[in-house]
Amino acid sequence: MTSAFPPAHALQVSQWFNAPPLTLADLRGRVVVLEAFQMLCPGCVSHALPQALEIAQTFSREQVAVIGLHSVFEHHAAMTPTSLAAFLHEYRISFPVAVDAVVAGSPIPATMQAYAMQGTPTTLLIDREGRLRLQHFGRLRDLAIGAQIMALVNEPLPGVTTNAAAQPGCDEHGCTLPG
Amino acid sequence: MTSAFPPAHALQVSQWFNAPPLTLADLRGRVVVLEAFQMLCPGCVSHALPQALEIAQTFSREQVAVIGLHSVFEHHAAMTPTSLAAFLHEYRISFPVAVDAVVAGSPIPATMQAYAMQGTPTTLLIDREGRLRLQHFGRLRDLAIGAQIMALVNEPLPGVTTNAAAQPGCDEHGCTLPG
Amino acid sequence: MTSAFPPAHALQVSQWFNAPPLTLADLRGRVVVLEAFQMLCPGCVSHALPQALEIAQTFSREQVAVIGLHSVFEHHAAMTPTSLAAFLHEYRISFPVAVDAVVAGSPIPATMQAYAMQGTPTTLLIDREGRLRLQHFGRLRDLAIGAQIMALVNEPLPGVTTNAAAQPGCDEHGCTLPG
Amino acid sequence: MTSAFPPAHALQVSQWFNAPPLTLADLRGRVVVLEAFQMLCPGCVSHALPQALEIAQTFSREQVAVIGLHSVFEHHAAMTPTSLAAFLHEYRISFPVAVDAVVAGSPIPATMQAYAMQGTPTTLLIDREGRLRLQHFGRLRDLAIGAQIMALVNEPLPGVTTNAAAQPGCDEHGCTLPG
Question: Closest to A40 (Cβ–Cβ): which among D41, D42, D90?
Answer without folding.
Answer: D90
